[in-house]
Specification:
246 residues, 21% strand, alpha+beta, 5-stranded antiparallel sheet
Length: 246
């Protein structure tokens, strides 16, 4: 039993943290006489109603929920302009370059009732999965920015298999192996087997989409045909002697 009032933001956040999967903590930031928490508001990963509410009213008090095992954070604020309820939005990581967010869709927040138990269910079903996808995308981008990547990789047909040289970039090599490429030690190539052509085609499409996210092109080519065999020299022609033998 909780003896706190869930309609109070601080109490709501404490109960909500206890209902979410994983280990979450709640830190309340009280109202200090109208001073906005701009440093927190600027990290809100939202382009919907949470961003609109903050732009219109600012943030006078709030709570930050932090998942301690992966350092993801949620902002809880009053749903100003509504008779009750709260807005919960993801906070973007503060240790990644701005360029890593290019092409990443914001995991927009939710308007939630002043019932932390139903609110937790809504977060688990909607916001947390979007948040996880966006975090994975932006972290992939950050890894690509930190590692030198080729402008494109070429996949070459070898019978029914597709092959490519092992990339110098470890994240790029990992991306390929995660989609079914296996290392052929003898040839020092990554090989995508063609035993199941449908699975092979699906893997190529998935690899192409992931490479597009990190601005690496993909090419498909057939191996160069073998060089034609050199023509065999013609046998020397013999000429009969005009002198008659005796």
């Amino acid at each position: 039993m909780h003896d706190t009032d869930p309609s109070d933001l601080e109490s709501f956040a404490v109960i909500l943290a206890g209902e979410l999967p994983g280990r979450w903590t709640s830190q309340y930031h009280p109202d200090h006489g109208g001073t906005d928490y701009d440093h927190l508001a600027s990290a809100v990963w939202d382009m919907d109603q949470t961003a609109h509410t903050i732009a219109t009213h600012g943030v006078a008090h709030c709570a930050i929920l932090t998942r301690t095992d992966e350092n993801t954070r949620l902002l809880v604020i009053d749903h100003l302009g509504q008779p009750e309820g709260f807005l919960v939005a993801a906070l973007a990581p503060d240790d990644l370059p701005e360029a890593a967010y290019t092409g990443v869709r914001e995991p927009d927040g939710l308007s939630l009732p002043a019932d932390p138990f139903h609110a937790a269910e809504a977060l688990v079903l909607h916001l947390l999965p979007r948040y996880a996808d966006a975090l994975a995308h932006v972290r992939r981008n950050a890894t690509a920015l930190a590692s030198p990547l080729p402008e494109r990789i070429d996949l070459t047909w070898s019978d029914d298999d597709l092959t490519t040289p092992v990339p110098d970039s470890a994240p790029l090599a990992k991306l390929l192996t995660e989609h079914g490429f296996v290392h052929d030690n003898g040839q020092d190539l990554l090989v995508l087997p063609g035993d199941d052509t449908a699975a092979q085609a699906q893997a190529v499409r998935a690899v192409g989409a992931r490479l597009a996210e990190i601005r690496v092109g993909i090419g498909m080519r057939h191996p160069a045909p073998p060089a034609p065999a050199a023509p065999r020299p013609l046998p020397a022609r013999t000429t009969a002697s005009a002198a008659r033998s005796r």
